[in-house]
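Take a look at the protein record below with the fold in mind.
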Amino acid sequence: MGTRVAIAQSQRKYGSPQAQQLQRALRLSAMWSEWLEFTLAPLNVAFAVTGSPGYIYSLLFTLNFTDEGVNLGLALVCGSIIAILHRWKQYGEILERLVYPVAFDLLYIPITATFLRLGTCPMRLEHLELLNSFTCDCVNHFGIFWGVGLLCFALHYCGALHHKMVLEPLATTVDFRFPPKYQFLIVVARSVGPMAALLVMNVGAGRDGVLAVLCCMLFISWYLLAYSYNLQPCIGSGRGPNNIRVVTFASSLYTTLCSIGIVATSGTLYTLLLTLAPLPLVWTQAWRTNSRRATKFHIPNVPIMQLLLHSSSMISTVGAVAALHVSPSNVVERHHERIMWMSERLTSEAVAVEYQRLYTVALRVLKQTIENDDRDGMRESALFLLQWYRTGYLHLAPEAYLQVLAALCASGDVKIVIDATHSLHEATTATVLSLNLWLEHLMPLQAFVNALDAPSATTVGKCATVLAMVVEAAKADRRRSPLFGEAIRKVEIVMQRWRACYIISDALERVYATVAAMEPSRQRRRGGIPNIVKESVTQRTSIASVTETAALSSFSNSIKPPRKTQVAPVGPHSALIDNSKLVGTSQAKPAMPQRIFDGLGWLMGRPLYTNLARAVLGTKETGTTASGIDVSVLAAVVRRRERRRQFADTLARAYECYVNAKCRNSSRRRSKCYGFQDIIEEVLERYHAPDECAIHDYVATAVDADVRAFFVPYLSRVRQHRPR
């Protein structure tokens, strides 16, 4: 409905209906020519086996003349007009309204067939003669015809795609249009007829080859017929165009079935022509059947004034929204007073009540689509509210704004998902949308999780960052986990998919570990902490602090040179983590980094992390918990975060030794720090570990520039000394 409203306001903004008649006539003429071409194309292929009546062969060859000179002259005239008018912007309107529809729509099939014939030089047809009687039949000159023909076909095909998918959907002079995806299918499908005929003609296919080509054409006709009937793709005043499309593909389907039957049974040409006798009945029945369905989506091709006076509430609503958005200069002047008078029939209080009712209905529909996981419904209802909001006549409450953008994140449209995720990330980080608002509306949060499926790492990172903020806020408020079930499964999948990206890995690991720490207390009382964890953890941390370690948002090991120095101080920006990228860094001089496990976890391997994960959950069982946390996945999360922490600690020690030695300005440059070389080797070993736990991306994106500049030369030396 929202799309039809937008189309209605743009279609009827010109003063006189006659301004649209030429555009409408051109498009309908092109559609009727496609109807005839789709109907005759299967017969043209079948004639390769049954023989063809010579007196109509020219017509059956995709409505084209056998004289290539006439065809090429027609194509040359269209191409010349486009090339000349394209140089002057003032003629752009003539190109879009007249020349493009003629060249790329009305005459698309004849011109395309001409270029294909020129490039492939089919038998049984007369060919164009150049100077000295050169034709494509001459072997020495066939390459010229082949190159020119196929190049012109490619240019014409691409031009038609651009016109049908980009220019035509934005046109405002016709009362109907088709979506770009459907236009792409039509351009491809109407190129199949000439290509199939030339293929059979050039290859000299036998009965089996002809049957194979006809079966492919049967599938195309059946698919387009089902698509056109079920979706009714025409937008706007689309009953007539939708009927033409259904009649076209129903006719093509019938003639293809007849051709397959005759070719398979070795029937004659006379039998084939007899089977075509019921075609008028097929056309009539297809028109009537589709007309009943198309009427439900039809908007009359009348001015806005008549739309407002229509008896149908849906159509009058379309007219009202169109009148709201249209520029007064584009409406017939004699209608201005009547439209204003109609709007004044209701008091402002009544109008406000009606708007509130419409807003309530729209929100209810949006909530229902989210509950039912109806992706198309979510997209349409959310876009309707968003477009209404952008007009300035609607002010969305924060919770409604959250629901609209979260629904768009689950729509599946990549561009919409990217924009909606960015908006939610900016609004959340700027506290326009509070974290408590997220926690009070869990349904939009579950819909927002779908943004993790986006192909863009930036979008996934923004979604993961917001999820981490929400989950950590829930834990701080001692609430239950806002993520569970399918959301947890999706987090696990995305963690595996983006395991090499630090920003995404860090945020989702925080989400997973925090949800694990929010398990109900009754689960924590089961069993005790394994001895292997007690021996290495008890002196420094409890189970809760271990969980906090796994859920840390960043490593805050700031590094400063000693106060007593003879060189310029490195300054507060010498932190291991760039303060502009990660929150939580400290400016105070830290003590030497302490290891929670003192290296024990690194030596003992995965079993320690599995036991640690069980200790965090307070259970000795494997499998999943009530929140959907998988113990083995949690163990991997703890292991990855501990390895990155160990790498950060070791790199911090190495950089501190480097800074201290530089500050002393020692003459013995080799003795920068006791054990410095061993520390560097340990850093490189952790960096090049087989399971590097996103350490590479961590160094590239999160480490401070000064620390990175110190560390990268050592990486370069290692690469140079590695055997090739």
In short: Residues 522-721 form one domain. The mean pLDDT is 75.
